[in-house]
Design goal:
Blueprint (H helix, E strand, L loop, with lengths): L4 H7 L16 E2 L10 H4 L3 H10 L2 E6 L5 E7 L1 E2 L3 E6 L10 H9 L2 E6 L23 H14 L8 E5 L1 H12 L7 E4 L15 H9 L29 H13 L10 H18 L6 E6 L7 H11 L9 E3 L11 H16 L4
Parallel strand pairs: 1-4, 5-6, 5-7, 7-8, 8-9, 9-10
Antiparallel strand pairs: 2-3, 3-6
């Protein structure tokens, strides 16, 4: 699916995906034996269990990111957790979107740590209009991740693992180049190594517009009209084939309306374009083992940039190439079972090699 000019104007070039308690978690129980990942057939019946898990076992709070911006975090630590996973989300996302994933990973015996990026979720917004996704400098996302790592360090029993989605993949890419000893291994699911800002001829058209027009109002919505949050119909969504998981995500954003976010600013788009241009060079500085999961039918980010990133990573790119989940849409972590289960299995198999 290509982003047409009309779609750009309606969805602002990119709609990509491209809460202070103390730090003592209630201890859930790690599974004594391996359990299956949640399937859609049982997800609906376990909604109450997941809600109770989220309310009773997940610790939530806030910390100050770069420049004192309040950032919301959440974490869960099962008893005798076999490893810690730091989840780095995409644009527009919040920890509340990943309740099922927290639950699933916790049942597998992982501790899970995540936070909301500045300008989105339950974290501090950057502009007077809280619906505009904005960042002054992409490096601030990296600085916030480092602050979070330092904040959570006492909760890690060993060097953690990283799991990043979409924009989180771009943030993690920069982070791994700057802080090479922070993670044992990393997975990037549908990483935003280049956003698909296609208008007419190619995925970089939006970048040309950001360069040509962005200076006129850098903190205005990119595009040509205001684009606040809209809960679009499942039939029109480019993110997932799972209607159940899509509706759960939208319901969470209805339950927590403060997490809702609209389109990005011109300056955010310009920063994303700048990052895309630098990431191939950044990849050459990474020493951490990385598994790149590519959604075969991704309309939000480009496959070519992920493949180029992997090539530059060289031996640090697992298997020497991206792992394609054929037919999958962008949101691998909330996709239909046919795509989500292979992705989660690949993640677990990869991580298991780095758990000591």
């Amino acid at each position: 699916m290509k982003l047409s000019l009309s779609f750009c104007c309606r969805a602002v070039l990119l709609s990509a995906t491209l809460l202070v308690p103390g730090l003592s978690a209630q201890q859930g129980q790690a599974p004594a034996t391996a359990v299956a990942w949640l399937a859609e057939a049982e997800l609906a019946s376990q909604s109450q269990q997941i809600e109770q898990f989220w309310q009773q076992q997940v610790v939530q709070g806030s910390f100050k990111g770069a420049g004192g911006v309040p950032l919301h975090f959440a974490y869960v630590k099962p008893a005798a957790a076999k490893a810690a996973i730091v989840l780095i989300a995409g644009r527009t996302e919040s920890v509340v979107k990943y309740q099922e994933l927290f639950y699933d990973l916790s049942r597998q015996g992982y501790a899970v740590f995540a936070y909301d990026h500045r300008g989105q979720g339950l974290s501090g917004r950057m502009l007077a209009d809280p619906q505009i996704g904005h960042v002054e400098d992409f490096q601030l996302y990296v600085d916030d991740l480092q602050t979070f790592m330092q904040k959570m360090q006492p909760e890690f029993s060993a060097k953690p693992l990283a799991l990043a989605h979409s924009m989180g993949g771009a943030i993690l890419s920069y982070y791994l180049a700057q802080y090479p000893d922070s993670f044992q291994a990393a997975v990037m699911a549908s990483p935003m190594h280049q956003a698909n800002a296609q208008l007419v001829f190619g995925p970089s058209d939006g970048c040309y517009l950001a360069s040509a027009l962005g200076w006129t109002c850098p903190d205005c919505y990119a595009g040509f009209s205001a684009q606040p949050y809209q809960a679009g119909a499942f039939s029109d969504n480019p993110y997932t084939h799972s209607e159940l998981r899509y509706q759960r995500f939208r319901a969470a954003y209805q339950q927590y309306p403060k997490v809702q976010l609209g389109g990005p600013s011109w300056h955010w788009l310009a920063e994303a374009c700048h990052v895309a241009a630098e990431l191939p060079q950044t990849a050459g500085q990474i020493k951490t083992p990385v598994l790149i999961l590519q959604a075969g039918a991704d309309a939000i980010v480009t496959a070519a940039a992920q493949q180029q990133f992997c090539q530059v990573l060289g031996p640090q790119c697992e298997g020497g190439s991206v792992k394609v989940i054929a037919g999958a849409a962008h949101e691998l972590l909330i996709e239909a079972d046919a795509y989500r289960l292979p992705a989660l299995t690949a993640i677990q198999q990869f991580f298991s090699r780095y758990i000591h």
